[in-house]
Amino acid sequence: METDAIELRDVSRRYGAGGGGVRALDGVSLAFPTGTFTAVMGPSGSGKSTLLQCAAGLDRPTSGSVRLGGTELTELSERRLTLLRRARIGFVFQAFNLLPALTAEQNVALPLRLAGRRPRRAQVREALRRVGLADRARHRPAQLSGGQQQRVAIARALITGPEVLFGDEPTGALDTVTGRHVLSLLREMVDADRRTLVMVTHDPVAAAYADRVVFLVDGRVHGELTGGAPAGEIAARMASLEADDAAAVPC
Ligand code: ADP
């Protein structure tokens, strides 16, 4: 039976109170089945980052439920949430976020150390091999290209064996060709290892690597494309959402 790695039910997130408050998410219900790759798109300010933060337990919804596997995140203390994130969630960011003073293998080993586990060299080397960087283990980030740094970040995100991987514009800082390699790698992590990947992107070509593209507008789900929609179709949908969004802004 297919299970959901993450399930959001009627999630709202308000910033600020009263008339000046912003409803960044407004009653979002979404399920992310195990072993699937979902891209989240929408105009600027539509709530994509807030959705990712709430789904990953980095931010708390004002109301609603967020479940990771069988665990209700909204009921956990900060301490338990931190432990859960370290053990069960991986993150890949646009800016790589590697520690410059550490080598590639030390960066990859870091989440294990934070979780109080002793990193085994063979495990770290295997993670680097998976991302094609077996021969760069002793290099520091400054000695690596952008694409190589992002591959180190992917190895780091996967070292604890997380169920879910969140990407926030993971190819945003890379050139087109390098970005495609990173996306292929992420796709492989979903297909070969049954990880669940949720990625925010504004790039229709990146979104075309996903099984499903969810569109957000004004903090609400505004339709989706499934079944590996081509980049052209995704771009056309985005263009129409952005045109509607621009038309709705009072000048
Ligand atoms: P996106 O990622 O799609 O650009 P965000 O989730 O960053 O959208 O933001 C959604 C809305 O919430 C925007 O109107 C934004 O200004 C507002 N917002 C986001 N974070 C905060 C915050 N920390 N404080 C106040 N408003 C915020």
Verbal overview:
The chain has helices spanning 48-55, 78-88, 104-114, 121-130, 146-158, 176-193, 204-207, 231-248; strands at 4-15, 22-33, 37-41, 63-68, 71-72, 89-93, 164-168, 196-200, 212-217, 220-226. The protein is an alpha/beta fold and 251 residues long. The chain starts with a strand and ends with a helix. It has one domain (4-93, 163-248): 3-Layer(aba) Sandwich (Rossmann fold), CATH 3.40.50.300. α3 (104-114) runs parallel beside α5 (146-158). It has eight helices and ten strands. The longest helix has 18 residues, at 176-193. It has a six-stranded mixed beta sheet with strand order 6-7-8-3-9-10, with helices on both faces. A four-stranded antiparallel beta sheet has the order 2-1-4-5, covered by helices on one side. Bound molecules: adenosine-5'-diphosphate. The site of adenosine-5'-diphosphate (ADP) has 11 residues, from β2 and α1. Residues 15, 22, 24, 42, 44-50 line the site of adenosine-5'-diphosphate.
